[in-house]
Amino acid sequence: MLTFIATQTSIPQKYNDALISNNSEINFAKTPKRGIKKDKMIYYVENDLQTISAYKRSKLKWQTNITSVCGKLKSGEAQIRYMGYNSNKLLVVIGKHNFAEIDIISGETSFVG
């Protein structure tokens, strides 16, 4: 299992409030939204469509690049297609059928399959 975590705490907000959803999931094929707001945290997919950042009070808490964890994909572009919030993790679909889980507290990322 590969894990990639980058933690920074002093970078100011760089997400667009208009692209934040209060729903628990985002399907990028169906909405222009790029982030999920839950429990005073914002989980945001960056412009590269490969990196997810977590912000609390506009400050970066952690950031993870999904493709660096998942490696080379068997099919589909190396881009996030779906992100869903579950009480203690983010569920992410990348490419066509690749899945990753991210711990919402630490940003620890695991390739599921």
Any overview of this molecule?
It is a single chain. With about 110 residues, the chain is mainly beta. About 5% of the residues lie in helices and about 45% in strands. It has one helix and ten strands. The strands form two sheets. The chain has a five-stranded mixed sheet. Strand 3 (about 35-40) and strand 4 form a beta hairpin. The longest helix is centred in the middle third of the chain and has 5 residues, at about 65-70. Residues about 5-10 have low confidence and may be disordered.
Overall structural class, as computed from helix and strand content, comes to: mainly beta
Individual helix count: 1
Radius of gyration: 13 Å
Fraction of residues in helix: under 10%
Strand adjacency order, main sheet: 1-3-4-5-6
- Strand portion, in percent? 35-45%
Pick out the low-confidence regions: 6-12
Tally the beta strands: 10
Intertermini distance: 11 Å
Helix and strand string, N-terminal first? Answer: EEEEEEHEEEE
Biggest β-sheet description: 5 strands, mixed
Shape: globular
The residue-averaged pLDDT reads 85
SSE map:
Blueprint: E1 20-21, E2 25-27, E3 35-38, E4 41-45, E5 51-56, E6 59-65, H1 66-70, E7 80-86, E8 89-94, E9 98-103, E10 109-111
Parallel strand pairs: 1-3
Antiparallel strand pairs: 2-7, 3-4, 4-5, 5-6, 7-8, 8-9, 9-10
Question: Key features?
Answer:
113 residues, five-stranded mixed β-sheet, 4% helix, 43% strand, five-stranded antiparallel β-sheet, globular, mainly beta, 1 helix
